[in-house]
Amino acid sequence: GAAADRGYYALLPVGTRSEAAAGSYGWNSDGILCGGPRVDDFAFFEALLEFAEAELCVDLDRVHVAGFSTGAFLTYGIACRYPHRIAAAATDAGGLSRAYAKTCADSVGAVPVQAFHSRADPTVPYNGTALWAGQDEMDALWRRKNGCAPEDEGRVSFASDTTTCTRWDCADAPVESCALRDIDHCWYGGRSGGFASCAPRAGDVDATARMFAFWDEL
User: Fold this and answer.
1) What is the DSSP letter of 18?
2) What are the φ and ψ backbone dihedral angles of 123, each rounded to 5 degrees?
């Protein structure tokens, strides 16, 4: 589909089966999500890179990582741990645990990062929880890591009745964050999660298309 049309390989692995929700799968970013400490999805990511290098004709300097929900948590975690092995990261409706966000903030390595999140997300709240950092906190974390000054307010890079995207062209790598109004826990502009309320609306940013556009300009 979208990847092949642009000359990308798309690796779409299946995560760990959830013990709490039958038929549900997900990812473990730092021991608090699907599978708990017994599941090492960072090791799995390393194995995927080894597979791509051995079996596919790919440019390992152009590896991009994207994820939805628990996959977004894992994507942020990969960007924190492997900034030297990925070209960019894109997250949809996710964050990091507050403990891991602190670890990430203390780590070294800039990564172009793009985020999509609904302000009305009931599953991974935009403003975070006692356990998870909110989207504004994640954006601020990456602006600091990528070399933006604290007072840099960014610029509006996309605006509609439902979506506002803000971009910061930081010294070491860009950050873009798209906030949506009045929609569920979704892959925005497409389908996901089985929620009827995830049907694309006029004005919604197309997360897939915008991710590829972001990567192509790097």
Assistant:
1) P
2) -95, -50
Number of neighbouring beta carbons within 10 Å of residue 159: 12
Backbone angles phi, psi at 184, to 5 degrees: -75, -165
Report the first-to-last Cα separation within the chain, whole angstroms.
21
How far apart, in whole angstroms, are the C-alpha atoms of residue 199 and residue 189? 8
Give the tens place of pLDDT for each residue, 45-64: 999 999 999 999 889 999 99
Q: Which residues contact 215 (CB under 8 A, 6 or more apart)?
A: 64, 87, 88, 90
Phi, psi of 159 (to 5 degrees): -145, 135
Contact 207, 185 (CB under 8 A): no
Euclidean distance between CA atoms 26 and 181, whole angstroms? 25
CA atoms within 13 A on the CB side of 62: 13
**Cα–Cα distance measured from residue 95 to residue 134, given in angstroms and rounded to the nearest whole number:** 7
Q: How far apart are CA 143 and CA 76, in angstroms?
A: 13
Give CA–CA dist 195/41, Å, rounded: 26
pTM of the model: 0.94
Q: Which helix (H) or strand (E) holds 113?
A: strand 113-118
